[in-house]
Amino acid sequence: MDLSRAAAEALDAADPLAGFRSRFAGADEDGPDRLLYLDGNSLGRMPLATPAAVSRVVEQEWARGLVGSWSQWIGAATRLGDDLGAGVLGAGPGQVLVSDSTTVNLYKLLVAGATARPGRDVLVCTKDDFPTDRYVVAGVAGARGMTVREIDAHVDTGLDLADLAAALDERVAVVVLSLVAYRSGALADVAEVTRLVHESGALLLWDLSHAVGAVPVDLDAIGADLAVGCAYKYLNGGPGAPAFLYVRRDLQEELRSPIQGWFGQRDQFAMGPAYEPADGIERFGVGTPPVIGMAAVEVGAGLVAEAGIGELSTKGRAMTDLIVALGDEWLLPAGVALASPREAVRRGSHVTFAHPQAWQLTQALVDRQVVPDFRTPDRVRLGPAPLYTRFVDVWDAMDRFRALLADRSYEAYPAERARVT
């Protein structure tokens, strides 16, 4: 592999996604001191079309249309869900709903799934899953008198299928797993995980937050049961953007949301005395949808769909391959270790490195106009977003990382993280 900067420039020149960069705020900046943003797996850049989309909702639909605009807002959660399903998730119409936060959606589907498996009293997750997933699983189990089986998952390489198989039996109701591990980027073996869980008779609930928009997700084709995910990482929907949930069509009538809100009611405007769940995916609605936030999600998700998940995945693998190769050449000799799967087919679109002073390195990188993020216990995580990150951005970021290790200036930074209040 040619690791020269000229080779990275050549990859950019041949990049079929190059035109998308100019459609994001700040992504088209150039120069030796420019900001190198490698945290798109945490918060995506803002599409330039987003302010106008939000302004349209605020200044026209709300300010002028007032309550009359509900005629176009009322079905927005399912309409945008269908668009997201078709363009990004590989899901047919009527199976995706945009609503609430990832945590709330996870809670809704987990309780619904557990209720639909009476006589089964175990929930399964991994010890290295994203905290909110583990917290929700523990909370649901405690409230329902169930047991949690937390599977050991390697912090760098992810879930071992043998460990999953050993945790599955006739007592398991729902298994909660991340498609892409938040720390290492390890990519789950979708087909084999699905087979094992379904053979046990349990339901499988995927968290797609670190996958959607960067790696192929084909929910209908893999026979997925349930899924949730956020829209502010690779989908570029902005901080606090509404999340989404997926329920396979043939499961929808079997499942019932534990939060009986009026947007999940069969005839919500009848204002009836009793709750009766709506047909289809709308039964998983709760309260009034976040109309303004959905306008931003529509822009970001639309760009991902326009680019095509195949092209995005191909570029994401190529960029992370470059990070791994440059890490081997420049970082490993300085005491940094790869903390992600080496093979691209086993990775999402981010790469993590381990170092005893990772917190100090992260802060020093930020001061040198490189934005990664820190993950416990000692990880620096680099997340190039294939929709707008260039190969030369990756190369220059790794070059600054190399220089930082060489001059050891990171050692002057505080060794402990400051609390954010």
Radius of gyration: 22 Å
**Strand percentage:** 5-15%
Identify low-pLDDT runs. none
Number of domains: 2
Oligomer description: single chain
List its salient traits:
single chain, 421 residues, alpha/beta, Aspartate Aminotransferase, domain 1, Aspartate Aminotransferase, domain 2, 2 domains, seven-stranded mixed sheet, four-stranded antiparallel sheet, 37% helix, globular, kynureninase activity, PyrdxlP-dep_Trfase, pyridoxal phosphate binding
Describe this structure in words.
37% of the residues lie in helices and 13% in strands. The protein contains 13 helices and 15 strands. The chain has helices at residues 5-13, 50-62, 70-73, 76-89, 102-115, 131-144, 161-167, 190-200, 219-222, 291-307, 309-331, 358-367, 391-407, and strands at residues 36-37, 96-98, 122-126, 147-151, 153-154, 158-159, 172-178, 203-207, 226-229, 244-247, 337-338, 351-354, 370-371, 373-375, 379-382. The strands form four sheets. A seven-stranded mixed sheet has the order 2-10-9-8-7-3-4, with helices on both faces.
Describe the structure concisely for a colleague.
Helices cover 37% and strands 13% of the residues. By secondary structure, it is α/β, with parallel strands linked by helices.
How do the strands and helices of this protein lay out in sequence?
Blueprint lengths: L4 H9 L22 E2 L12 H13 L7 H4 L2 H14 L6 E3 L3 H14 L6 E5 L4 H14 L2 E5 L1 E2 L3 E2 L1 H7 L4 E7 L11 H11 L2 E5 L11 H4 L3 E4 L14 E4 L43 H17 L1 H23 L5 E2 L12 E4 L3 H10 L2 E2 L1 E3 L3 E4 L8 H17 L14
Parallel strand pairs: 1-13, 3-4, 3-7, 7-8, 8-9
Antiparallel strand pairs: 2-10, 5-6, 9-10, 11-12, 12-15, 14-15
